[in-house]
Amino acid sequence: MEFLLGVDQGSTKTIAVVGDRNGNIFGIGYADGACHSSDGLDLAMSLVKQACDQAILQAGIAPSQVRLLVGGLTGADWDHEYPLLQDALIRTMGIPSVHVQNDCVIAQRAGTDAGHSVVLCAGTGFNAAVQMPDGGRFIFGYYVNDDDHGGYALGKAAVVAVCNAHAGIGPYTRLTDAILAYYGLSSVDDLLFRRIHQQLGPYKLVAPVLFDIVSSGDEVARGIVENYGRSITRYALAGLRKIGDPELRTDVVLSGSIFKAKDRLLQKVIGETLAQQAPQAVLADALYEPVVGAYLLGLDRIHGAKYALRNENLIASAGRFGLIRLPAEHKGLQTT
Q1: Residues 20, 314: contact at Cβ < 8 Å?
Q2: Reported pTM
Q3: 40-67 pLDDT tens trace
Q4: C-beta separation of 75 from 81 below 8 A
Q5: How many domains, in total, are found in the chain?
Q6: Which positions ≥6 away from 193 have C-beta within 8 Å?
Q7: At 42, which helix (H) or strand (E)?
């Protein structure tokens, strides 16, 4: 019996799953994250191997039974990087058939089985991609504006709002007490000092604090999220224009940790903006974690056609490994 591997390597973590051609996932493995361009190719590949070896071991199969690997790798941004990473994976894993995608693309596949779609990925950073009906694809990558980069942008905006409120150039916000408490600081002056001297740590860690205050009804916090939602919807609208058919219903997939917040204001803003400007768009939370999208792309190759997103075997086995993205009340969200 032959098996295939799906891999998702981001800057934070590397995840691998191994399964058969019938949508049954049998093993999962984890390792630290890395990007070949910033952390080195050798390190990135060693972490992929670590995660894959764990998945294969858990599945109880021999490495020689794995015949296909599809990897969504951060840092797969420029044309020359795809063959570089593909060759490195072949050497590292000894698997005869390897296919590399940008990590945004596997997130897209984890949310739709349509032949054309758009995806917005908001985690630590942000990326977006569009697949055209003819199979062509555009990944926004380095075209993404700095102020749109996910948890980093949201956390930074929250800290700036606190400083603005204290200086009197912005309105009062409950974010002040919440962010000071998060950092264990006694004053906004201390917060500003640490901000200027880059001593606050990753801004992405402040994003959950922001969403907690959004839920309390704070207008400043809500404004930050609303502005961010309208800003990243520009990428979805650009993707829809690239598809070029205003009559063609098109999935706009949401993936990434920012879209897992309990408060759904961000999704509401994106949905309302799309409804006004692109009524053909169908907003959908990705059903699976991105690594399942890599596995699905492998199944597509094996079967020569799009494998069903909601295949019963896949839903059941992904659920057993904790690879369903959202709680039951949010699964399959669609807004037209």
Answers
A1: no
A2: 0.93
A3: 999 999 999 999 999 999 999 999 999 9
A4: yes
A5: 2
A6: 199
A7: helix 41-59
